C-alpha cells in the first residue's frame, strides 16, 4: 500500500512514553474524561493510551505540558478533546473473553453513553491511539461496525479518521502472530490466556482492512527533540 510522508513540528515536548503507574492506576477501570471543550465544537477527538499507560500522564510531557489540553486546541479550535483511560491489570475477565476484546467493547459503550447523553452522537469522531491502544481502537471500530444495535453502530459510522502513534505496522504483526499461534497450538492452547489474546488480535488485524476504507487512517512515529521542538513523522495512506 503506497504512503506519502509528511513531517511537521510541535512547539512543545511530545507525549512521553507510556510507563507503569502501579499505585495510581489500580483504581482505574475505564473512564472517558473531557480534556478540553471547544466553544463551538464540530468534531470530537478521543485519545486512547497504550498498555500500562495513563489517561493524563501518557499525553503529558515531563514539564507538565499536556498535548491534548495545551497544544492541539491552539491549532484546532473547533475540536473537543477527550481521553479514554482503562486498566490493563484488570483480570476479572480472565478465562472468559480476551481482555483487549472486553476493553474494545467498553470503549464503544462508554463513547455511546456520553455522546447520547450530551446529544452529540452524530458529531464526527477522530481517534488518536498510542501503542497497544491502537489494537483497542481497531477492535472497538469492528465491534461497533458489526453490532446489531444501531446506537453502538453509530460510533463507527461517525468515525472520520484515526491517528495511530507508535503502533506496529499490520503486515509485521500478522506474520509474528501467525507464527506464535502455529507454534503454540495444542490440546490446551484454548485455555491459555496469551493464546486467546493473540487469537483475538490476529482476527482483529485481519478484519480491520474491511472497514478502514470508510475513514482516513494515519500512522505517526515520534522523533526526538530538534532545537527545542519535537516532530512527528506521519505516513498518510494515499
Features of the shown structure:
238 residues, alpha/beta, Rossmann fold, eight-stranded mixed beta sheet, 6 helices
Protein model, in words:
The chain is an alpha/beta fold and 238 residues long. The chain has one domain: 3-Layer(aba) Sandwich (Rossmann fold), CATH 3.40.50. The protein is 36% helix and 26% strand. The chain has six helices and eight strands; from the N terminus they run E-E-E-H-E-H-E-H-H-E-H-H-E-E. It has helices spanning 67-75, 99-117, 133-146, 150-158, 170-183, 193-212, and strands at residues 3-10, 30-36, 43-48, 79-86, 125-130, 159-165, 216-226, 229-237. An eight-stranded mixed β-sheet has the order 1-8-7-6-5-3-4-2. Helix 2 (99-117) crosses helix 3 (133-146), helix 2 (99-117) packs across helix 4 and helix 5 (170-183) runs antiparallel to helix 6. The radius of gyration is 18 Å and the shape is globular. The termini are close together. It comes from Aspergillus indologenus CBS 114.80. Keywords: Endoplasmic reticulum, Membrane, Mitochondrion. This is DUF676 domain-containing protein. InterPro entries: AB_hydrolase_fold, SERAC1. It is found in: Endoplasmic reticulum; Membrane; Mitochondrion.
Amino acid at each position: 500500500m503506497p504512503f506519502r510522508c509528511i513531517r511537521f513540528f510541535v512547539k512543545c515536548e511530545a507525549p512521553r512514553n507510556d510507563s507503569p503507574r502501579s499505585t495510581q492506576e489500580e483504581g482505574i477501570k475505564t473512564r472517558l474524561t473531557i480534556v478540553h471543550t471547544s466553544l463551538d465544537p464540530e468534531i470530537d477527538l478521543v485519545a486512547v493510551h497504550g498498555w500500562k499507560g495513563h489517561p493524563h500522564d501518557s499525553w503529558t510531557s515531563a514539564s507538565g505540558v499536556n498535548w491534548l489540553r495545551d497544544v492541539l486546541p491552539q491549532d484546532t479550535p473547533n475540536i473537543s478533546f477527550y481521553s479514554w483511560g482503562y486498566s490493563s491489570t484488570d483480570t476479572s475477565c480472565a478465562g472468559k473473553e480476551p481482555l483487549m476484546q472486553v476493553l474494545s467493547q467498553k470503549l464503544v459503550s462508554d463513547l455511546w453513553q456520553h455522546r447520547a447523553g450530551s446529544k452529540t452522537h452524530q458529531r464526527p469522531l477522530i481517534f488518536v491511539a498510542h501503542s497497544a491502544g491502537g489494537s483497542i481502537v481497531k477492535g472497538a471500530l469492528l465491534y461497533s461496525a458489526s453490532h446489531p444495535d444501531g446506537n453502538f453502530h453509530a460510533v463507527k459510522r461517525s468515525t472520520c479518521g484515526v491517528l495511530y502513534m507508535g503502533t506496529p505496522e499490520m503486515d509485521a504483526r500478522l506474520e509474528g502472530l501467525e507464527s506464535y499461534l502455529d507454534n503454540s497450538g495444542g490440546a490446551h492452547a484454548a485455555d491459555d490466556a496469551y493464546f486467546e489474546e493473540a487469537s483475538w488480535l490476529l482476527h482483529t488485524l485481519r478484519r480491520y482492512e474491511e472497514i478502514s476504507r470508510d475513514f482516513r487512517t494515519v500512522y505517526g512515529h515520534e522523533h526526538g527533540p530538534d532545537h527545542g521542538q519535537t516532530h512527528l513523522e506521519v505516513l498518510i495512506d494515499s
